[in-house]
Every structure is written in structure tokens, then in C-alpha cells.
């Protein structure tokens, strides 16, 4: 098992489920700007591709244009599922399912058949939902990118559980396993940073028939180890 983050809470530091720096309003503005610039960039890509002479006159050209437009729309839908920027977000289970489905569609090859299973147990605290959704997006994306590379069929299982003290997210796939950088790369580094915002932990491990990625987030301060 590879531990991707570790608990580092100073005994005198007050615990909070929210990030220590920056308010909710500033985060919303930053996300809005990011989405705006991303949308503009994707629209520009579509415009530039459409200028290629003769592209729309061939069957392959039509296919490329349609697939590119589909993925641009999926990217916008994924932003809405993650952040609820253009409409009020729904319940946690619906948002989690929407994020995972959009991520699979965005990352998978058109000919792949990937079965998605989403299980939610308990009530995830509101302060942790954004982190859980972003983590699920990254974990499912890794499962498709690495585990399902060059595979026609696959199964990805997402499980979110919450009890009185902890919220846990687990993503399992039956693919090849993680094949990225030894230190986890940029994506897994972001997972470490997300978990650290709430004094949580993340792990990545190879299981018998695939790979499991997890994130565990506390609902409050945890007792320091004895000794």
C-alpha cells in the first residue's frame, strides 16, 4: 500500500473542516474565472478545428468534429456537477453520480464499455462535499486513464460512506493498475493536497483484481497517538 498523505496536525492548532486560507466567496470567484477561461479556450479549439479546409467534407472529419464537440459539452457538464456554477447543485448522491458518469464519458475511448457503480451510505457533511466530489473526479479519471487503457470492457466502483466521525471515499477498478510517476504525479499530488485541507489521508494500492484509491476525512479533531 502506498500512503499519499499523512496527518500533520499541530496539537495547539484548532481543527476546522474548512480550508484555513481564503473564504468561500473568493473560492467561488476563482472557480468561476477558471471555468470561464476554460470554456473560452475550448470554444476557441472548436473554432480553429472548424477552419481546417475540407474537414467537414469527409466522414472522418465529421466524426472528429462531433467527438470534439461532445467532449467540450461533457467538460462543461462536469464543471456544473462539481461546482454547481450555472444551477443549484442537487443531492450528494446525484452530484457524485453525475461527476463520475461525466468523467468516464470524457476520459474513455468512444468504443469502450465501462460499467459504473456508485454506492452512497450515510450523510456526507456539507463542508466535505466539494472535496469529495473533486477527489472522486480525479480518482475515476485515473482509473480510466491508467486502469482502463487499451481495454474494451471494464468496471469502476465508487463507494462513499459517512458515519459520526469519518467520511470515506473509495474507487476501485478491475484494470491494469496505476502506471504513472513513482511519486504519484500531479493528479495524486492534488489528492494529497485535498486531503490535507481537512487533515485527512489518501491511499493507493493494488488489489487482487485491480486498483483501489481511498480518501478518509475526519469530521472533527482526532486524538493524538499515545506514547
From TrEMBL:
Task: Indicate whether Aminoacyl-tRNA synthetase appears among the record's keywords.
Answer: no
> GO MF terms on file?
kinase activity
Q: Does the keyword NAD apply?
A: no
Keywords associated with the record: Kinase, Transferase
A Pfam family annotated for this UniProt entry: HATPase_c_2
Highest taxon listed in the record's lineage:
Bacteria
The segment(s) forming the Histidine kinase/HSP90-like ATPase domain are 121-195
Looking up SUPFAM superfamilies in the UniProt record yields: ATPase domain of HSP90 chaperone/DNA topoisomerase II/histidine kinase
The protein's name: Two-component sensor histidine kinase, contains HisKA and HATPase domains
Amino acid at each position: 500500500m502506498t500512503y499519499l498523505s499523512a496527518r500533520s496536525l499541530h496539537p495547539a492548532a484548532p481543527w476546522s473542516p474548512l480550508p484555513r486560507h481564503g473564504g468561500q466567496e473568493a473560492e467561488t470567484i476563482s472557480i468561476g474565472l477558471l471555468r470561464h477561461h476554460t470554456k473560452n479556450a475550448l470554444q476557441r479549439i472548436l473554432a480553429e478545428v472548424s477552419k481546417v479546409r475540407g474537414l467537414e467534407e469527409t466522414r472522418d472529419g465529421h466524426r472528429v468534429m462531433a467527438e470534439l464537440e461532445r467532449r467540450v459539452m461533457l467538460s462543461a457538464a462536469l464543471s456544473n456537477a462539481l461546482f454547481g456554477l450555472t444551477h443549484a447543485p442537487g443531492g450528494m448522491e446525484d452530484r457524485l453520480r453525475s461527476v463520475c458518469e461525466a468523467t468516464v464519458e470524457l476520459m474513455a475511448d468512444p468504443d469502450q464499455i465501462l460499467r459504473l457503480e456508485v454506492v452512497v451510505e450515510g450523510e456526507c457533511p456539507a463542508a466535505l462535499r466539494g472535496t469529495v466530489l473533486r477527489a472522486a473526479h480525479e480518482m475515476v479519471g485515473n482509473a480510466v486513464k491508467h486502469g482502463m487503457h487499451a481495454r474494451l470492457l471494464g468496471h469502476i466502483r465508487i463507494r462513499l460512506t459517512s458515519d459520526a466521525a469519518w467520511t470515506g471515499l473509495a474507487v476501485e477498478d478491475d484494470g491494469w493498475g496505476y502506471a504513472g510517476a513513482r511519486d504519484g504525479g500531479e493528479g495524486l499530488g492534488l489528492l494529497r493536497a485535498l486531503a490535507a485541507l481537512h487533515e485527512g489521508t489518501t491511499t493507493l494500492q493494488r488489489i487482487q483484481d485491480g486498483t483501489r484509491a481511498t480518501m478518509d476525512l475526519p469530521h472533527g479533531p482526532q486524538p493524538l497517538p499515545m506514547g
